[in-house]
Predict the structure.
Amino acid sequence: MTMTDAAKAKLATLVVLLGGLAVIATAWGFQLIGGYLPCKLCLEQRIPYYAGLPLVLIALLVPSRPWLRAVLLLAVAAVFVYGAGLGTYQAGAEWGFWAGPTDCGGGGAGPASAADMLSALKATRVVSCTEASWRMFGLSFAGWNVVASVGLALVALIGAYFSRKS
């Protein structure tokens, strides 16, 4: 049995939604369960998921308008390409290929007194954007985000292609 172009487009859209949800849930799991605090760039790399996944959900809900699904999936692909760029920037900084951001690793409001400053210093764990806190098969969280973002962008493009054909 062969799938219609509309069914292929819907399947690709569903894969992007479930894959994106799995990635962002994994990031939150490492943070909340694993205790890995995200740096500034790590938090910025989540934004494409927060922006792209609602668009994917809308694309799933407009089956009678294949042109709209195609446009939404093209936008989603662009969002995930941007996310891959952020991940590449951080992974390159972690490997020392280029400098990371100068404002990464600290922030927040200043203390009201010297005592507040001392207690804040004791309680604060600074997370650097240029040091990988975890690696698997040589890739850090940022590196795996590049892999996931590129994969999701490609599947979104496939979905847009089949949406246009249907």
About this structure: The mean pLDDT is 83. The chain has one domain: 5-98+113-165. The domain at 5-98+113-165 is CATH 1.20.1550 (Bromodomain-like). DSSP finds six helices and two strands in the chain.
